[in-house]
Design brief:
By secondary structure, the protein is mainly alpha-helical. The chain contains five helices and three strands; from the N terminus they run ββααβααα. The protein has a three-stranded antiparallel β-sheet. The radius of gyration is 21 Å and the shape is globular.
């Protein structure tokens, strides 16, 4: 069973440092767009020689960072408690500032966890009928002990 209960309206996510972001609901289209955008940026960096593709850890870290930033740019529609570098005026909501916000690892990590949590609920609940160890869809008592 799968409950069709994904959020359909924008909602707020509370992040560290009293930062709040209002986001569009996560969707297949938004995730696919973010993945395509992150891949394009990654490929450009590789073509320019601006990243070390031989180091697995660096490649994975860069890929995740690019994905989180792309998700932020596609999803964040409003924010609170994000200020310019001087700390006196609110920062304008734009792609460059979203990237700067998500350069703070604790912010990026929490944003990703909370934003995709709706998708992860499907995985964690196992849709109620996850495969049993013997490969069947449901675990039921054995009714026949032998076919002979």
């Amino acid at each position: 069973m799968l409950k069709l209960n994904l959020k359909t309206e924008p909602y707020w996510i509370d992040l560290p440092g009293t930062v709040r972001v209002k986001v569009k609901p996560v969707s297949t289209a938004l995730m696919s767009a973010a993945q395509a955008s992150a891949t394009a940026v990654y490929n450009t960096l590789v073509e320019r020689g601006e990243t070390n593709v031989d180091d697995d850890a660096l490649r994975k870290g860069l890929s995740e960072s690019l994905l989180v930033k792309a998700l932020g740019k596609f999803a964040i529609i409003e924010w609170e408690n994000v200020f310019k570098a001087d700390g006196y005026a609110p920062a304008e909501l734009n792609d460059a500032n979203i990237e700067q916000l998500l350069d703070f690892w604790v912010i990026a990590d929490e944003f990703l966890k909370q934003y995709v949590s709706q998708i992860n609920l499907v995985k964690s609940e196992g849709n109620v009928s996850a495969p049993a160890a013997n490969g069947t869809l449901e675990t039921v008592p054995t009714t026949v002990t032998s076919a002979s």
